[in-house]
Specification:
Elements: E1 2-5, H1 15-25, E2 42-51, E3 56-65, E4 71-80, H2 90-103, E5 111-115, H3 127-135, E6 139-143, E7 161-166, E8 169-175, E9 184-190, H4 194-203, H5 212-230
Parallel strand pairs: 1-4, 2-5, 5-6
Antiparallel strand pairs: 2-3, 3-4, 6-9, 7-8, 8-9
Helix pairs in contact: 2-3
This protein binds 2 DNA strands through strand 2 and helix 2.
Length: 236
DNA sequence: GCGACAG
DNA sequence: ATCTTGTCGC
C-alpha cells in the first residue's frame, strides 16, 4: 500500500530559506562513525519519481538483506511536489516523500542509500546528509553524475576509485563498479566513513553499474507514480 | 555578467 | 527527473 506524503509545516518556500536551513543543520552531521559493516544487517534504497504536470511525487523505500541482496520490505508514498528543482537544493524537493516512505516501513531501514550527494555539495549538506540529520540514520549518497565536482578517471577495473575534491578536502569518490563502465560518485551522508561507504557500494553492485538498492527503489517509485496517476481517472 | 549544475 | 524506438553487442 501507498501512504500519503504531506509537506511538513514550516518547510522552506524560497531558495533563501532553504539555504538558511542547510546552514543551520549541517553542524549536526556526524562524521566520526564508521557505520554498519558491509554485508550485514539491512540496507535500504530510496528514490523519487515526478509528474510535474500533475504536481505529483512518488517515493519508494526498499529494504534489502545486505548479505543476500534479497528484498525484505518495501513501501511507497505519494504527495504534492514540495519544492522546485534547484541545483544544490534537491533535498527540499525529495525529502518529504522519502521520509514518508521510510516511516511506512515495517522495520528499521539500517543504512540508507540515496540518489545524489551527501557531503559533496556546495554547502557540504546534500540530500544524503540532510536525510541522515532528519532521521538519525546512517546514510550515503550515490550519484550518477559528478555535479559541480571534477576528478580524474579511475582505472578501468571494478573497485578502483579517485578522489572527488573540493579544494584539498576529499568530499567523495568516483568509484568504478563495473569494468570499463562509467563510475558512480559516492559521498558520505551521515554516520558513515567514506571508505565504508565505498565498500557498501561495491557490495551492492554485483552485476550492474548502480547499487541494487537504487535499482529497486527506482523501479518501485516509478510504478507507484504510474499507479497514482492511473488512480481516480475514468477508465478508457 | 555568463554558464554549469545531484534529481 | 522526463520526453522516447530501435539498435548494437555480450
Amino acid at each position: 500500500m501507498t501512504t500519503i506524503a504531506g509537506v511538513p509545516a514550516g518547510w522552506p518556500t524560497t531558495e533563501e530559506e532553504a539555504r538558511a536551513v542547510q546552514d543551520a543543520l549541517r553542524a549536526r552531521v556526524v562524521l566520526d562513525e564508521t557505520g554498519p559493516k558491509p554485508g550485514t544487517g539491512h540496507v535500504t534504497g530510496v528514490d523519487v519519481a515526478y509528474d510535474d504536470e500533475r504536481d505529483l511525487v512518488a517515493a519508494a523505500a526498499v529494504v534489502l538483506d545486505a548479505a543476500t541482496l534479497r528484498v525484505v520490505a518495501e513501501s511507497t508514498a505519494v504527495g504534492r511536489i514540495a519544492f522546485p528543482y534547484v541545483p544544490g537544493l534537491l533535498a527540499f524537493r525529495e525529502l518529504p516523500a522519502v521520509c514518508a516512505a521510510l516511516d511506512a516501513l515495517d522495520r528499521p531501514p539500517g543504512l540508507v542509500v540515496c540518489d545524489g550527494y551527501g557531503l559533496a555539495h556546495p554547502r557540504r549538506f546534500g540530500l544524503a546528509s540532510h536525510l541522515g540529520v532528519l532521521t538519525g540514520l546512517p546514510t550515503i549518497g550515490v550519484a550518477k553524475n559528478p555535479f559541480t565536482f571534477s576528478c580524474t578517471d579511475p582505472a578501468p577495473t571494478r573497485g578502483s576509485s579517485t578522489p572527488l575534491r573540493a579544494g584539498t578536502d576529499e568530499v567523495g569518490r568516483a568509484l568504478r563498479t563495473r569494468d570499463g563502465v562509467k563510475p558512480v560518485f559516492v559521498s558520505v551522508g551521515h554516520r558513515v566513513s567514506l571508505d565504508n561507504a565505498c565498500a557498501h557500494v561495491l557490495a551492492l553492485t554485483p552485476s550492474y553499474r548502480l547499487p541494487e538498492t537504487t535499482r529497486r527503489a527506482d523501479a518501485l517509485c516509478r510504478r507507484a507514480l504510474r499507479e497514482a496517476t492511473a488512480a481516480g481517472r475514468p477508465a478508457d
